[in-house]
Design a protein that fits this description.
The complex is a heterotrimer of chains A (307), B (295) and C (457). Chain A has 307 residues and is mainly α. Chain A folds into two domains: 78 residues, no CATH class; 202 residues, MetI-like (MetI-like fold, Orthogonal Bundle), CATH 1.10.3720. In chain A, 65% of the residues lie in helices and 2% in strands. Chain A has 14 helices and two strands. In chain A, α11 runs antiparallel to α14. Chain B has 295 residues and is mainly α. Chain B has a two-stranded antiparallel sheet. Chain C is of the alpha/beta class. Chain C has 16 helices and twelve strands. In chain C, the strands form three sheets. Chain C has a five-stranded mixed beta sheet with strand order 2-1-3-12-6. In chain C, strands 9-8-10-7-11 form a five-stranded mixed beta sheet. Chain C has a two-stranded antiparallel sheet with strand order 4-5. Classes of the chains: A mainly alpha (307), B mainly alpha (295), C alpha/beta (457). Chains A and B meet through α1, α2, α4, α5 and α6 of A and α2, α4, α5, α6 and α7 of B.
Chain lengths: 307, 295, 457
């Protein structure tokens, strides 16, 4: 225990030390780069295991922790067998269909969830940040307070409501209860409070409606926050499995993580297929992140917002 | 504010309508139901008995509850005092100007957040194995110790294993927020401080810290709430148990065990109340402290 | 292009449209299906695939439509508990694992969400056909709520090649006492002389789960709860067993290595680090799948007994089928359950897929159980059926999981304090801890307002 903690604390001290000594000298730059490389290696190393497991044949999956020795490389030890099993047509009680349906279900659920959350959370955040109205403080505290209840406790009451609304086995059961979140409201409120009020007042004098002020002035000014927030919501929805498992019935409506779990169940484990699926499931959000990462972390100062 | 707008019907209510509708139906109403349940023993809608404070009395006199609370507090402390400084450190390292590899490192450091907790459970059960596990072998190689450590079945190592796994998962996630915040540090101010002869530590304290403070407060509060709600990660890592001698039992796992494993939602609801109160108090203290620093 | 929320949102809008389009086209083929007559929940992919193959036959025969959903087992628990707490009807037919039974049938006996099957089992004569103890797993206060699906007897798998090399005859390992003596003398060894042991006798976890808590406790004839659900934890046999287990898993004299599951287990077995491992029928299949390269190297024997002539098997795991009390079509649900439990084609294909033997003595004559399994080089089914009649009885409780967890905790605490205690003091220490567990669980049962008359103290 001690050793590990000491090592971590040392690493921390070195990091901070480097940052603080960080004049733009070549030495500091080199140190910076090497720390980043070491950290990246540590973070990536578990994925190495995942990638190797994906491409190993099931017959040698557990024989070698990583890859077989080079002499034994062949189409029998390293191949696409796991991916082939995974992507094979899915036979279910409803009939046969493509595995890509699960991926698209996931894409749909995650993006729809993200769009709903961005819309409604930014609206609520805008309301809390820009207007003063009776009960604002109390309502905001209530919203914040809702974050403190463990969600698992609400499963049974929410289940009953979903049944009463006739939403079992529909995406409404997943999308509607998750359409707003205290996290997003809090985030947008913090961001929009930093926008100078004069901008809004100027727009009002020009005759803009409140809805237009939100859409055309407030939203563009908080784009970096929107980017970071989208990423968080998207990933949470992408990896969520408790709710879909409880509210969906038809296999063809299930998102990807629910299906992947079936490969590591009772009585038999197809680890290779599961790990190949996990590898596959990381790719879409990773691509999205890489493609949009400049947007995610555009300067908060961009767009002329300065305090 | 414009007085004319608030006099009648504030447009705020229009913007809040979806929030109130959704949260009211799927959050506040169930919270009230669950809140009431803390004072009941029930089994379905037809079998309900009011038992007053008995659920609370039971929980507060259960040694296991205090064990779970202790584990949760230790975990929260490490999230805030170890993980967040590391996130900030990484963000500052990445924030250098004109570095073309920035995007590449950013993706790598963030990447653990892309995978779900079930996978993390299976993965780290393999990494943390005595004799064969990658972490054990790496430690042995580096320090000459650690080959035979039973991370997940020795009470002394369970919590460190969970903290380490959480560090791997979340360090890059929090880094993203710090990175966004660091963009708002004014370069003019930084240059001015440098001209005035301020050292790196002073520049950090007097220029960087005030600029990133709103985001930092947000991240600290969210990390606290997240730590107190820790459930899926240890559940996956310890295969649904609290670990040896319950060394990895968290408060939400304790709640889950009563409500879902033993089927007594009343006890679970009582734990939920206590937990919510604790988080609320700690968050309020954090907000107070962060405001106090301004003056 | 002017789009105020930004490029991120624009990308997401495009993505949601594309995904909706794809899903819409794909789903067109499901649009016309009428609502099903029966809902059926299962938690194992192996079961799902076997059932799917035979369901059309049942549907054609009975003229009904069955909708089967596969969930992983924690999700199944979440869903069923949510249904129970909300007081809504369960799916018509459900399968779940025995650790979930006690908590799902809590509450007033008449409001249990599943139908008691006593009359149906008696009317069909099925009640006398189960292997001993299997019905008790699914029984509360005399009401049989579940149809057992399995027996899950436990045997000891060993490395044939290593035992042959060491000159050990597995037939001589009839008691644990002898097993430990042979293990210490001949098996546990530091082969390379570097101070690290390279060969242990048996796989036993440090936490005690499942070898101690599930397998050995039952094999020793210890039932943690009685038929009324009362705890029997304050028990000298149990204390003795915990002290024994601690000795075999801790310190310089230990004979076991905690090999774990999946890849870890495969590494330990393929690198000859561990020679014996306790296997219920279903785990033999996992071993086949996880280490195909080891074919022919394993043999099977009965567990060593605790005393000469004592019980030589145990049981680990178990699944049952349940009919919703509020099912709109209980007759059809029962017929489906019967079909899935008794259909011979299904029993055969299930055994081929999972190595699991059925709980009905009447089905044990099927030829499939005498076929020699290529991996084990034994008539695997027959070997497990031979011991299936001796499987110990286990009674359920909502606190069964808690009890196992607490026993594992006692082991962990004993490990921490053992250095300062001699053998007798260890026993006393464990007895004292077990006494605390006993009274804690009694207190939890005491709290239950909904116990029936006969379940009260």
């Amino acid at each position: 225990m001690n050793l590990l903690h000491v090592a971590l604390l040392l690493l921390l001290a070195i990091l901070m030390g480097l940052v603080l000594a960080g004049r733009a000298t070549a030495a500091a730059n080199l140190a910076r780069r090497s720390v980043l490389i070491i950290v990246s290696c540590l973070i990536l190393s578990p994925f190495v295991w995942l990638v190797f497991a994906t491409f190993k044949d099931p017959s040698v999956l557990n024989e070698y922790v990583f890859l077989p020795p080079f002499a034994e490389w062949s189409a029998e030890t390293i191949n696409l067998s796991n991916l082939r099993t995974l992507l094979a047509p899915q036979e279910t009680v409803h009939g046969t269909y493509s595995f890509f349906l699960y991926i698209f279900n996931s894409v749909f659920l995650a993006t729809a969830q993200t769009l709903l959350q961005v819309t409604f959370c930014s609206m609520a955040g805008f309301a809390f940040a820009v207007y003063s109205f009776r009960g604002r403080q109390a309502l905001f505290l209530l919203v914040l307070g809702s974050m403190m209840i463990p969600p698992i406790l609400l499963l049974a009451p929410v289940y009953r409501m979903v049944v009463n609304f006739g939403w079992m086995d529909t995406y409404f059961a997943l999308l509607v209860p998750g359409a707003v979140g205290a996290y997003g409201i809090f985030l947008y409120r913090q961001a929009m409070m930093r926008v100078p009020k004069e901008l809004f007042d100027a727009a009002r004098i020009d005759g803009a409606s409140e809805l237009r002020i939100w859409y055309e002035i407030a939203l563009p000014l908080v784009r970096p926050i929107t980017g970071a927030f989208c990423l968080v919501v998207f990933l949470n929805a992408w990896n969520s499995f408790i709710a879909p498992n409880v509210f969906l019935q038809s296999t063809y409506k299930m998102p990807l993580p629910v299906i992947l779990q079936h490969f590591v169940g009772q009585y038999e484990n197809q680890y290779g297929v599961f790990l190949a699926g996990t590898f596959l499931a990381i790719l879409p959000p990773a691509c999205l992140f890489f493609y949009l990462q400049r947007e995610f972390i555009l300067g908060l100062t961009s767009g002329g917002v300065k305090e | 504010m414009n007085g004319a707008l608030t006099r009648h019907f504030s447009p705020a209510w229009f913007f809040l309508l979806p929030t109130i509708a959704v949260m009211g139906t799927f959050l506040f109403y169930p919270v009230i139901l669950a809140g009431v349940m803390a004072f009941q023993q029930s089994s379905g809608a037809l079998a309900v008995e009011w038992i007053g404070w008995e659920n609370f009395q039971f929980v507060l006199s259960d040694p296991l509850f205090y064990r779970a609370a202790r584990n949760t507090l230790i975990f929260a402390a490490f999230s805030i005092f170890l993980q967040l400084p590391l996130s900030l450190g990484l963000a500052m390292l990445l924030n250098a100007k004109g570095d073309r590899t920035k995007g590449f490192f950013r993706l790598i450091i963030f990447s653990p957040f892309l995978v779900g907790p079930i996978f993390v459970g299976i993965l780290f059960a393999v990494l943390f194995t005595p004799r064969f596990g990658m972490i054990n072998r790496f430690l042995q190689y580096l320090t000459g110790w650690g080959l035979e450590v039973n991370w997940l079945s020795n009470p002394a190592f369970v919590l460190p294993a969970i903290i380490l796994t959480a560090l791997w998962m979340y360090v890059g996630f929090n880094m993203i927020y710090f990175l966004a915040a660091l963009q708002s540090v004014s370069q003019d101010l930084m240059d001015a401080a440098r001209v005035d002869g301020a050292g790196p530590w002073q520049r950090f304290l007097h220029v960087t810290v005030p600029a990133i403070k709103p985001v930092a407060v947000f991240v600290v509060i969210m990390s606290t709430i997240g730590s107190f709600q820790l459930f899926e990660l240890p559940f996956a890592l310890l295969q649904g148990t609290g670990g040896p001698d319950n060394a990895g039992l968290t408060l939400v796992m304790y709640l889950y065990n009563h409500a879902f494993v033993s089927g007594d939602l009343g006890l679970g609801a009582a734990v939920g109340w206590i937990l919510a109160m604790a988080i609320f108090t700690i968050s309020m203290v954090q907000i107070k402290v962060s405001k106090g620093g301004d003056h | 292009m002017y789009f105020p929320p930004g490029k991120v949102i624009l990308t997401l809008v495009v993505m949601v449209a594309v995904a909706a389009g794809y899903i819409g086209v794909q789903r067109a083929q499901f649009a016309a299906t009428p609502p099903p007559d029966l809902h059926f929940l299962v938690f194992s992919r192996a079961h799902y695939e076997r059932y799917r193959a035979v369901l059309p036959e049942f549907e054609a025969e009975e003229g009904v439509r069955v909708h089967m959903t596969l969930l992983n087992w924690n999700s199944l628990r979440n869903r069923l508990q949510a249904i129970r707490i909300a007081g809504l009807p369960m799916p018509d037919l459900v399968e779940f694992e025995r650790s979930q039974f006690g908590a799902l049938v809590r509450g007033p006996l008449d409001l249990v969400p599943f139908e008691p099957l006593n009359e149906r089992l008696e009317a069909t004569g099925l009640i006398d056909q189960f292997a001993p103890g299997r019905l008790e797993l699914w029984t509360r206060a005399g009401r049989h709520f579940g149809v057992p699906k399995d027996v899950h007897p436990v045997m000891l798998a060993y490395r044939r090649d290593i035992l042959a090399e060491l000159g050990i005859d597995p037939a001589e390992l009839t008691t644990w006492e002898r097993f430990v003596a042979v293990a210490r003398e001949k098996i546990v060894a530091d082969l390379t002389g570097n101070g690290i042991i390279d060969r242990y006798a048996i796989d036993m976890s440090l936490t005690g789960n499942p070898e101690l808590t599930q397998i050995l406790i039952a094999q020793r004839g210890i039932d943690l709860f009685d038929a009324r659900g009362r705890p029997l934890m304050h028990n000298a046999d149990l204390a003795d067993l915990i002290v024994w287990y601690h000795e075999q898993t801790t310190g310089a004299n230990r004979i076991s290595f905690p090999a774990g599951w999946g890849q870890n287990l495969a590494q330990a077995l393929t690198s000859d680090l561990v020679v014996f491992i306790m296997v219920p029928d279903w785990r033999t299949r996992q071993i086949e799948m996880d280490m195909p390269g080891m074919a022919g190297k394993f043999g099977l024997m009965a567990l060593p007994a605790w005393e000469e002539g004592g019980g030589r098997t145990s049981t680990f795991g178990g699944t049952g089928m349940f009919i919703s009390r509020q099912s709109e079509n209980p007759e059809m649900a029962w017929r489906l359950a019967e079909f899935l439990a008794l259909d011979e084609t299904l029993l055969e294909s299930s055994f081929r897929r999972t190595n699991i033997i059925p709980p009905f003595a009447g089905a044990w004559d099927l030829p499939v159980f005498d076929q020699v399994n290529a991996f084990w080089q034994e008539p695997l089914g027959r070997r497990f059926i031979e011991v299936a009649g001796d499987v110990p009885v286990i009674h359920p409780s909502p606190f069964y999981g808690l009890a196992l967890d607490r026993i594992a905790n006692v082991l962990a605490r004993l490990r921490r304090h053992a250095r300062h205690l001699d053998a007798e003091a260890r026993f006393d220490f464990v007895m004292e801890e077990l006494g605390v567990i006993q009274s804690d669980i009694e207190q939890l049962i005491e709290r239950d307002r909904f116990l029936s008359e006969e379940e009260r103290l």
